[in-house]
Write a structure and sequence with these properties.
Strand content: 25-35%
Number of strands: 4
Number of helices: 2
Structural class: alpha+beta
């Protein structure tokens, strides 16, 4: 659910690629993965990222963050 700030400003809300929910950009991270052999940023909510979701081709390290 978008935060109070994001409810009035559509630029502050985005869709998580893992769960498909609309969330505030304040509660998202961008994880680097690969799609069709090319690097791509995947925007994921903290719940999914902390729960272990990683994009295809993810090579980095993710440290869970408080929600």
């Amino acid at each position: 659910m978008p935060s109070e700030k994001a409810k009035d400003n559509k630029a502050l809300a985005a869709t998580c690629v893992a769960c498909g929910k609309a969330v505030s950009t304040e509660s998202m991270v961008s994880l680097l993965g690969r799609e069709n052999g090319k690097y791509k940023q995947f925007n994921v909510c903290l719940v999914c990222a902390n729960g272990g979701w990683r994009p295809p081709g993810f090579e980095g390290i993710y440290t869970p963050r408080p929600i």
